[in-house]
Write a structure and sequence with these properties.
mainly alpha; 3 domains; 2 strands; two-stranded antiparallel sheet; 2% strand; DCoH-like
Length: 238
């Protein structure tokens, strides 16, 4: 501003400008000065990105984000609103299922394309399963119901694959129901009182074992009959 002031110009860099159509001055003074243009280093070659298949998130099973991770194109909440406004239900369903985190659906869709068959109906997205698990983790009893108010069993495809693999290898999968649930744990036959009695017997044997004249048969007699059934070598001393 010192240079401007030395040149005899207003120190704030503003001056009176006139309207070119009417010749009258503008109501407010306007800043006048040099305009500098800088080229930003944002080039198309560095921005362009495309993906057919690629890595998926281990938690949500959705494609990763960003060019650096060879990710997919983000389809956010507002984009979903746009397709809903257009009424593009099938396009929206495809983007949110087989093109995203419907693990079983995307495999079946690829298989149908290779075989030339019709693409089957999409399944349940993995993100919905994650939501159910998170709600159950905070103690909520979450159930999925159909239009008849009947519960829909949502099971992991991994459990189904494990059971099918076990059957193909002739492994014993008895006790596993059709929903892939694990068999109940065996009943606990632990008897605390029995262990206490056994420990008391061991202490008694240890005490009697200090007497070198006590025979092994006498120890067995103690355990099964009591102290009256043994021959005491020191009976005459009593």
């Amino acid at each position: 501003f010192g240079t401007i002031r030395a040149a005899g110009l207003p120190s704030d860099g503003k001056t009176v400008l006139y309207d070119g159509r009417t010749g009258e001055p503008f109501e407010n003074r306007v800043t006048v000065g040099c305009v500098y243009m800088l080229k930003l280093h944002h080039l198309v070659d560095d921005k362009i990105h495309a993906r057919s298949t690629g890595p998926y998130s281990l938690v949500t099973q959705q494609p990763l984000g960003g060019k650096a991770q060879f990710g997919g194109q983000r389809f956010g909440e507002m984009e979903v609103w746009a397709l809903e406004a257009y009424g593009a239900a099938y396009t929206l369903q495809e983007i949110l299922t087989v093109k995203s985190d419907d693990v079983v659906g995307r495999v079946k869709a690829y298989e149908s394309i290779v075989k030339g068959d019709n693409i089957p109906e999409p399944g349940v997205p993995e993100s919905f399963k994650v939501l159910i698990k998170e709600l159950q983790a905070i103690g909520l009893d979450i159930k999925v119901l159909n239009e008849d108010a009947k519960e829909i069993a949502i099971r992991d495809e991994e459990d189904e694959d494990i059971n099918e693999k076990a059957r193909s290898l002739d492994l014993d999968v008895e006790g596993v129901d059709e929903n892939g649930a694990a068999p109940p744990p065996p009943a606990d036959d632990y008897d605390e009182s029995a262990e206490a009695e056994e420990s008391a017997d061991e202490d008694l044997i240890a005490d009697l074992g200090a007497d070198e004249d006590l025979a092994a048969d006498d120890v067995d007699a103690i355990l099964h009959g009591g102290l009256d059934d043994i021959d005491n070598p020191h009976e005459d001393d009593l």
